Amino acid sequence: MSHETVAIIWFGLWGLIWTVYFVLDGYTLGTGMLFPFLAKNRQERNQLQEAVGPFWGGNEVWLITAGGATFAAFPAVYADLFSFLYTPMMLILFALFFRAAGLEFMHKDESKRWQTSWKWAFTISSVALALLFGVAFANLFYGLKIGPSGYEGTFLGLLHPYGLLGGLLFTSLFIVSGALWIMIKTVGDVAQRAYQIARPASVVAAVVLSLFFVATSNRTTLFDNFTKAPILWIVPALTFVCALLMLLFVWQKRIGLAFANICLTIFTLMATGFIGMFPNMLPSRIDEKYSTTLFEAAGSELNLKIMLGVAIVMVPIIISYQLWSYKLFKEKITKETAKGYQ
Amino acid sequence: MSDVLLLSRFQFAITVFYHFLFVPLTIGLIVLIAWMETQHVRTKNPLYRQMADFWGKLFAINFVLGVVTGITMEFQFGTNWSEYSKYMGDIFGSPLAIEALVAFFLESTFMGIWLFGKDKISPKLRAFSIWMVALGTNISALWIITANGFMQNPVGYIERNGRIELQNFWEVVTNPYAWHMFVHTIVSCYIVGAFFVMAVSAWHLLRKQHVVFFEKSFKYALILGLIATTATPFIGHKSASFAAKMQPAKGAALEAVWETKEGLPFHIIQIPDPKNERNIVEFLTIPKLGSYFYTHSFDGKVVGFDQIPKDERPNVNIVFYSFRLMVALGLYFVALCWYGFYLYRKNKLIESKRFLKVVMYSVLLPYVAINAGWVVAEVGRQPWTVYGLMRTAEAVSPISLSQILFSLVSLVVFYTILLIADVYLMLKYAKKGPYASTATKGGEVQHVS
Ligand code: HEM
């Protein structure tokens, strides 16, 4: 295997790790965003906490892995991406702090003020994370203001209409994902309320997705790769098909299938983005020559090969015990049995 | 030094300090809980299960913050030390990625299983899950220290394409510097865990409440504490002589050695005067012992600062006093644990109010020792970020002053909020004792909003 080939494989893995993170954390972020609106009392909050409690920590590690894998496989991207996007990255970190602490600390004290504060910390952080990740990745697809002397943009400069649309897209997709997850995991009033939200939310998500694709085709060069190799159009086409199926299944109240399709929608959406970026990892909006490609950023051949070996051994193991944990907690959570974080 | 560099260093120090407030307890406490779970499987005595539940609850509170502050660390090299990351990423990044793949997934997934499954799953599965968490936390320390060990003693690399590239993975993984650090760090984390459990138990024993429960807990922690504290001076000594061999400047700073000497004496009380390159006070001197510490031979030659250029020396005072503090605390811990053991054997533990109080008030001292240790290791390495390869000033990101100010201030504020919440909860649940959680079951439902 040549250096170039392993580098390309790692680009694929890099995209895959981010994608898996968004698919998995999507439902927890969605649950967080909906939390105060679905749960009306302690027992219901317990239900929602327990719906995500056993899994969210393991899911978040996909994000940490994304960080580590970027560092290991593409050191230059790790360095530039996170220092270019310094402010949003810091905001993401802060939101991650309070998402976790909000969820786990909420019920550890009986004072009303304590509970309300952490509850809203959980919710607001979840909203912020969805928005920020959406804006960040939309900007990656759009291209950053990278010039001869590095990054020339500002934080507010990331909030152009396309960036904001990306934020909105992630938010709406994650809300649908969260609502459906809650319906899968719980029974009773919360599940009912989740359905009330899932229906309009799925319509909104589908509409925003269409707008996002239109904007992508008008405003970015992301689809160039697809025009070059038309077979690739299958991927964004699948995004559409899955989004439509998701809509259909939500309205038919076939929740398992709807959830599968929202996950696939997120998956193929991210795949579309990464395929469109290839071989760039840090696309410059100013001039192609300031972009960083995966080949420029890649680590040494030996490093990439060893890391590939580690990933090939570890990822199946991780996936199997994570699946096992989903199986262990497959029972629906009722109001009466829910304990939440005590 | 530019402001951005100074503030970036400040930010790194603060974030690493906060992270290391939580991590040692995670590493140390989990082995005790795993042991309790194992005893529960073996004896079927419900007491062990209650012990695991009680300490597990405290563990969980602490664990979240370890995770949360760890995420900052994972991204901070990119945000703030981008030049470092570009130069070093090929070697420094892979241990971090492996850490996530091998350790973080394991600990987080099984923590979820244990926390939410503990009333559903069998005792065996409980024990298995918690051992997986323990394994994960300990392995994670191994990988991050492998990365740090490279900064202390670069091996298995080649400088190419304007950066460090991996040449021999095996050498990186078996770097003796890293293994010295790993053993010393892990064992000192066990001291933290043991002292934490002993201190909380002492608080209850002093009040004569849940006596059986906390006597047992105390005993478990005491055993771990005895082993860990007794081993530490030997392990630390190995670290010291090895570090001095690999990094003579750090070595000279440990005992503030100004002149290269054979048969170096050891001064129990010593006050260095770095400006004039001498010691102002040298008191209670034991001849030749210094050489023995460094070289295992009473006549061994010890390199002093006279052989080290001025711009390659660390801050002597900081290293020297931190080292003395760590060692003094280490010896105190040994004494405390063995005295506790003596009382325990004489069945006098519970009556010895004074001893229990001392234990209780000593709870933070292992944290002090650990941080002193990191200061020795990290400040002792300065002015290098990567020993012999990269100076700290070259490592920083080209970010603006307002960005670093924004992040620094926010981090301090948010971390402090989280720390206050954490301490509040830890105290609350530690004081509540083991049975309270079931007693309030009925009351919980009333709190509806
Ligand atoms: C009792 C005698 C002790 C000796 C002789 C000793 C020696 C040392 C030395 C020489 C270093 C620096 C190693 C380097 O830079 O490579 C170090 C670091 C450290 N020490 Fe100690 N130490 C002792 C006790 C303790 C205790 C009681 C604790 C904590 C409970 C502790 C925690 C640490 C930690 C966390 C580090 C940083 C990691 C490392 O470099 O290994 N030490 N110690």
From TrEMBL, chain A:
**Transmembrane regions:** 6-39, 84-106, 118-142, 162-184, 196-216, 231-251, 258-282, 302-324
User: Is Signal found in the keyword set?
Assistant: no
Q: How does it sit in the membrane?
A: Multi-pass membrane protein
Q: Which UniProt keywords apply?
A: Cell membrane, Electron transport, Heme, Iron, Membrane, Metal-binding, Transmembrane, Transmembrane helix, Transport
Q: One GO MF term, please?
A: metal ion binding
Primary residence? membrane
The protein's superkingdom reads Bacteria
Gene Ontology process terms (BP): aerobic electron transport chain
Q: Which GO terms describe its cellular component?
A: cytochrome complex; plasma membrane
- Which residue windows are coiled coil? none
Question: Transmembrane helix as a keyword?
Answer: yes
Q: Where in the cell is it found?
A: Cell membrane
Q: Which family does it belong to?
A: Belongs to the cytochrome ubiquinol oxidase subunit 2 family.
Name-wise, this protein is Cytochrome bd-I ubiquinol oxidase subunit 2 apoprotein
Annotated organism of origin: Anoxybacillus pushchinoensis
Classification of source organism: Bacteria, Bacillati, Bacillota, Bacilli, Bacillales
TrEMBL record, chain B:
Question: Keyword Repeat on this protein?
Answer: no
> Would the keyword Nucleotide-binding turn up in this protein's UniProt record?
no
Family matches, as Pfam families: Cyt_bd_oxida_I
GO terms for biological process, alphabetical: aerobic electron transport chain
Q: How does this protein sit in the membrane?
A: Multi-pass membrane protein
Keyword terms, alphabetized: Cell inner membrane, Cell membrane, Electron transport, Heme, Iron, Membrane, Metal-binding, Transmembrane, Transmembrane helix, Transport
Which InterPro entries does the annotation name?
Answer: Cyt-d_ubiquinol_oxidase_su_1
Q: Which GO terms describe its cellular component?
A: cytochrome complex; plasma membrane
* Compartments (UniProt record): Cell inner membrane; Cell membrane
Drop me one GO molecular function for this one. Answer: oxidoreductase activity, acting on diphenols and related substances as donors, oxygen as acceptor
Q: Where are the transmembrane segments?
A: 12-35, 55-76, 96-116, 128-146, 177-206, 218-236, 318-343, 355-377, 404-427
Q: Which family does it belong to?
A: Belongs to the cytochrome ubiquinol oxidase subunit 1 family.
Cite the PANTHER family for this sequence: CYTOCHROME BD-I UBIQUINOL OXIDASE SUBUNIT 1, CYTOCHROME D UBIQUINOL OXIDASE
- This chain belongs to the protein called Cytochrome bd-I ubiquinol oxidase subunit 1 apoprotein
The source organism is Anoxybacillus pushchinoensis
